[in-house]
Amino acid sequence: MGADFTQQIRDKAKELLEKGTVECVIGYETGSDGVSARPAFIHDPAEVDRLVFDNTCSHNLVKYLLNKKGKPTAVVVKGCDSRAVNLLLSEKQIERNQAFIIGVVCPSVVEWGWNKRSEQIQKRCDWCRQHTPVVYDFLVGEPVTEEPPPDFADVAEMEAKTTEERAAFWREQAERCLRCYACRQACPGCYCIDCFVEELDPEWVGIRIAPQENLMWNTIRAFHLGGRCISCNECERVCPVNIPLSLLNRKLEQEVLSLFDYRAGMSDDTIAPLITFRKDDKLGIGE
Amino acid sequence: MAPVESNVAKSIAERVYSYYPGCSLHATAAEYDVSARLVCQKVGIELRELEDWVCCGASAAHSTDHLLSLALPAHTLKQAEEKGLPLAVPCAMCFSRLKFTLHELENKDTLDLVSRAIGKELSTAVTVKPMLQVLADENISLPIAKLLIGLKVACYYGCLLVRPPEVVGFDDAENPQTMDRLMERLAAEAIDWGLKTACCGAGVAFARFDIVLKLSHRLISLAQRSGADCIAVACPMCHANLDMYQKDMTAKFGQKTELPVLYFTQLMGLALGFSPKELLLDKHLTDPLPMLRKKKLI
Amino acid sequence: MSRIGVFICHCGTNIGGVVNVPQVVEAAKRMPLVAYADENKYTCSEVGQASIRDAIKEQRLDRVVIASCSPRMHENTFRRTVATAGLNPYLLEMANLREHCSWVHSDSKDATAKAIDLVRMAVAKVARHESLFPKQVGLTKRALVIGGGITGIQAALDIASAGHEVVLVEKEPSIGGRMAQLDKTFPTLDCSACILTPKMVDVSQHPNITLLTYSEVKEVRGFVGNFEVDILKKAKMVDYVKCTGCGNCWQACPERIPSEFDLGLGRRSVIYIPFAQAVPNKPVIDIANCRYERYLKWKETEEGPEPPQCRICEGVCPTEAIDRSQRDEIVTEKFGAIVVATGFKTFDYSVYGEYGGGRYPDVISSLQLERLMSAAGPTEGEVLRPSDGVHPKNVVFIQCVGSRDDKVGRPYCSKVCCMYTAKHAVMLKEHDPEVQCYVFYIDVRAGGKDFEEFARRAQDETGAVYLRGRVSQIYQEGKKLKVLGEDSLMGRLVEIDADLVVLATGMEPSDNADVIAQTLNISYNTYNFLIEAHPKLRPVETQTDGIFVAGTCVGPRDIPDCVAHGGAAAAKAVVLLSQDSLTTDPLTSFVDPMKCVGCFACKEVCPFNAIEEQITRDGRTISSVNESLCKGCGLCVVACRPGAINLRGFTNQQLLSEVLTLVGR
Amino acid sequence: MSADNEPLIIGFLCNWCSYAGADMAGTSRQAYPANIRIMRVPCSGRVDPLLIVKCFEEGADAVLVAGCHPGDCHYSEGNYYSRRRFALLRELLDFMGIEKERFRIEWVSASEGKRFAKIVSDFTEDATKLGSRKVS
């Protein structure tokens, strides 16, 4: 995989930059630890050899397209990342003709950290149903047949607990939350100019670092992504205090699937479930 | 007629069928059975009779015991399901019972109940087709030996073949066309008449003979006055009622009632070159042979 | 720093009897920003209102909380009160101490505690109120009427006579609609054409009415008072300025095709007017069927044999009015109000296979019978049955064909069938005394002035046999139609040898009623009948301001009801058009351009198409609210994650501060 | 949070149906417990999940959102959106330890005063059973 994928990406990047199709290629390069990958922004055809692709390439680079509005840009996306492209297209945050999508059939990524990489596959990849990108202009690797739907064992496990236990669990998480907002910064679906959490009037979330303020933040962050989260799980990966955000996201993913039969980012013309409706929705409310 | 087309479309390329003759075709309606088998063989349709079929329970069961009326057809359906072939059913009454059963088995609870009754796990994944639909398939080429030119046929479908539409899902309930089109392919003339799907009275055959006479006579006389040379049927019950009592009708209603009543498969048989003997045309009480001779068809 | 005044009402003992008002007053005085608190016996009384006005002046209050009854009761009253004291009427908030407190709670302690909370919430909210000013928008004093049937005609005439310009759009070549197809009208039996055609002429001659026949409404933009409508004018191929309507062309035209107006019973030429008294009395060329047009088509490809060239109409036209250069064109017009009167069509009887409609030529619809009876019809008023043109003696009528029948998805009653069938029975007898009528019915519904009397007359005088029951089957037997049915009152089966069977087909909305509704953004029910704003109290209004509905497009009704309905819609339109400007409710949502990220979730959820796209100076595409369309529901506010949209009167700040008075710090 | 373990219930009522329904309860003197504090909103579709979560995080024991019956919305569609939004939010809150029973969504028409009283009474009873939420 590695070498071959890397080469294909480099060649395509070179071609695109030389032809002037795009003015920047967003991909991955080996980080300064020499072990793990980090985002790379290539503007010069001569530098395409910086680009690599290996199983530490976890960043969802689609996020960076948001800063490239109006500039033709190529971006390297894995299966999960590609759903973010559709999300942003449907929410009119990027323009299709401005983005050249280099899709990579995802080999699954591993757990890694500064100067260390394990062979442990990341959780998100166990759940993943989208190794082949849903949208791309150029595909690296052969499309694979996807696994059957994952079960939500982790969610079920949490639901097996009593309400008190669940409340206690999240309270404990909230007490550790630093409100550094790394989860937000990594999320391609979080692109508001002013996030509600920093709003002073109305002050939805108080400045003080108190559990209920933190819970407020974590609940609404998750809910704002309800029916929009494309399960790249970057938010959880970047959390410095390891709050299991995937639990919230996946709980919502599961509900959205069962209530509205919807998966975010599968195409660029679907409407998120919370801004549409069916008159005959059966949701166990007043029925 | 949309339903016809869609049904025809479904049967494309189906050439092998499980076969459920039903009781009548082994007795009074032997000529239907025989002619159907001959014709199918001729046009390259293979019929595999189910080894262990039982009575569909028409009238006897479905008017007395609901569960039994479902269990009997279910037993037959189960075999067909195991064979994995579509099931061809000549008798309209059997067809109706099988379809009704499938319809009721759509309900989960009923499915479980009946499954327990016959001791087998049922499903509703069986295609059941009336013989008429099987043979009317326009994708089947008919190696015609003798065109039935000049023969005016009143196609009679009866009540059960096309009703109720939501259950049988075959042809149009008020003005069906399948048999008419088929007859035209044999170069016979299917006359347009209004009682194609009217009742012949079979339901009360034993209880109220007078009603049978009245209804059947209404049918035959209209067919006669509409210029038909014969009536073509696809149901042993209809055949019995229309064919057997014509003398009684003449007696009861005055003017002479005489109109041959043939199974559509027999008319096909003629066109495909079989002899009246092979087709048991001599078995009818209202003798069709003179008419056929007059028409130079035999 | 605002100075809030709180006024707590005893409402006699209604509130004071349960809630300890003085205690609430004391509590109110200690609430933040409250500069003054007082109590009244009856705040809504003149005395009470005066005390508020005085307090506002004396205490220099800039915001007011009135704790009394439900705002749904007195909000407007008190808005006027504070306004007369010089405050902006929107700087008022009410606390519902009566309906929501004293009337539902008996324990004084609890009720008082709750009352204090309710006041605190109101104070917190009013502190965040801002002065709001209703907007004035201009309006175009013109009305569009869609549909040239009797309803549309009435509406157009009334609006025009009130002095406003009207454009009447009709998709057919002539106005007149269904009523023009009728022979006589029940229960008076006066001739339909005789009472309709004068109105049609009035329309064509009215100085305020522009008639656009052979035209359709394609697109509607804008909002109440300021609609912009695209109208498709189909090519008539005839220059109406030159044409005198002499009729040479339609007499000379060699092609004859089934006439839509005569429902296939008669034939018409290809250059044609639908019927003799058509308005305008000038023809159109039905391009699809015109020989010469067919020739021109052929000319492009030259495939197949060369068709004849014809052009006879051009030859015989004395004024050279035939103009083949005409093409369909779209015109855009501005209107202040729109009246929709798109009418009905009759149910397709071939759905009932057992009646054989469509198979047997002598099974016809009631509307077809009207054409057979009409002196201007294909048989010039002689009732001759289609198959062989003989006079029918035995005529069977079947009621509720496509009405009151779930089986065909038409559970509603079409309202007019019972009466027009009675009419048919009476008139057939007049046409031919030997006629015997049989009517299969479910119920005879003769609710209306002189209706019951008339229905009786049909049964008693004409000897029509009314049979309560359905028909099970009809079949041809020689020249007769055998009708098998049930007489459920006698409990027996009946068999009738009929010469003619007439199906009383029900009403359903015209084709594309749903499309038009979508174009206008008004709602319609499962049968595509348009939905009024309120079935009882706003019968001709719709949820969209400035758009009115009338006639059978709303639901089955007879001619007098349609005329009344059309008049009602006209009156509403006139009320609107007689204003010089429109006042818009200021409780609308608004966008903060700095926060909007342009995801347009708001646009997705807005039921009123009030969200528009706008480009900011720095080139971002963001949303903005058309305040004339906004109805203040606030759906957009909740859909907006960054909180860029807010709703005046119910801002995020206000709702949050209300909550915070109850919980937390 | 209100005194002596009396549950605090916050109700968001749409102006056109449910608030009117609550008025109706008043005019017809349908008594119910005094625990509920009613906020008037134009439409149940105006109720932001932020408000609901805020209520709970700041110590409300139960929250009621009431709107017009589906199909009767004054703005024709608002309650269809709130139905979806709150069906999802209810699941999330329960997942995070706030019992489903504490968050009710009801359709109450302007004529259902009696029913409104019943709903509030039952809801108050349930909330009392559940006990007050422990928040710092």
Sum this structure up briefly.
The complex is a heterotetramer of chains A (287), B (298), C (665) and D (136). Chain C is an alpha/beta fold and 665 residues long.
Description of the molecule:
The complex is a heterotetramer of chains A (287), B (298), C (665) and D (136). By secondary structure, chain A is of the alpha/beta class. Chain A has helices at 2-19, 62-65, 79-90, 123-127, 153-160, 163-176, 182-186, 211-224, 234-238, 245-260, and strands at residues 24-30, 37-42, 51-52, 73-77, 99-104, 110-113, 116-121, 138-140. Chain A has ten helices and eight strands. In chain A, strands 1, 2, 3, 4, 5 and 8 form a six-stranded mixed β-sheet that branches. Chain A has a two-stranded antiparallel ribbon with strand order 6-7. The longest helix of chain A has 18 residues, at 2-19. The model of chain A has no long low-confidence stretch (mean pLDDT 94). Chain B folds into two domains: 4-133, Glutathione S-transferase Yfyf (Class Pi), Chain A, domain 2; 143-294, Rossmann fold, CATH 3.40.50. Helix content of chain B is 46%, strand content 9%. Chain B contains 14 helices and eight strands. In chain B, strands 2-1-3-4 form a four-stranded parallel β-sheet, with helices on both faces. The radius of gyration of chain B is 19 Å and the shape is globular. The two termini of chain B are 34 Å apart. Residues 1-12 of chain B have low confidence and may be disordered. Chain C is elongated. Chain C folds into five domains: 4-126, Rossmann fold (3-Layer(aba) Sandwich); 145-229 and 330-343 and 510-580, FAD/NAD(P)-binding domain (3-Layer(bba) Sandwich); 235-327, no CATH class; 347-508, FAD/NAD(P)-binding domain; 589-648, Alpha-Beta Plaits, CATH 3.30.70. Chain C is 28% helix and 24% strand. Classes of the chains: A alpha/beta (287), B alpha/beta (298), C alpha/beta (665), D alpha/beta (136).
